[in-house]
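Q: How do we represent a protein-ligand complex in a form that can be generated token by token?
A: Start from the inputs.
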Amino acid sequence: MSAAVPVIAIDGPSGSGKGTISRAVARALGWHFLDSGALYRAVGVAALRSGTDLADSKALVELTGKAGIRFEDRLDDEPLILLGGADISAAIRSEEAGMAASKVAAQPDVRAALLARQRGFRQPPGLVADGRDMGTVVFPDAQLKVFLTASAGERARRRHKQLSEKGIDAMLPVLLREIEERDLRDRTRSVAPLVPAGDARIIDSTSLSIDEVVATVLDWAAYLPR
Ligand code: DC
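Then emit the structure tokens for the protein with 2'-deoxycytidine-5'-monophosphate bound:
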């Protein structure tokens, strides 16, 4: 789609609140939404289920082409994520899928294979894109770039709360260690590392509510050329 279709790129580490915030911003504006992490998670789940080596980039690229990963929009709900026709919307949210996603996302060829697919989400009237490299690699011409952070401790606490609401009993120190491990891998990988774009506006959400962050982003979005 043409570069004239506006994009708001929202990047940041897991637990920064970017998923919730991006969705809320997309809903408020009536724009499309790209959850790029879900795409990497779906590739991770496809690899785990097919027994593909998470370090074999050639096999992973082949898998992204043939696994049949599809996103289906649903009214008033998160998109349905399908793998060869099977609903994997819940499966991609597990810690195991997150770890697998982080590993496949570290492969440059896998990232390249997913690039055109992510850019295809850029459809009128606009797109809110949530990820790690939305503003740096996928949509470098995005009209608004936001980099959302929060301290690792706060992100672990949020994840713990989220899991216990789902009845999952996780240990806070384990979650913290996992978050730190994943951050390190995402920040230090050679391709598309998790860093703010030079022209990104940075929000530290450690002591902000979701509504406060959404209001700030919508305030900035109000000044975008339409
Ligand atoms: O945002 P998330 O936790 O669903 O992302 C899962 C993994 O995918 C995470 O380890 C980082 C990776 N990812 C990425 O490398 N680039 C993106 N644009 C989105 C996610």
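Residues 164 and 170 are 7 Å apart (CA to CA). The chain is about 50% helix and 15% strand.
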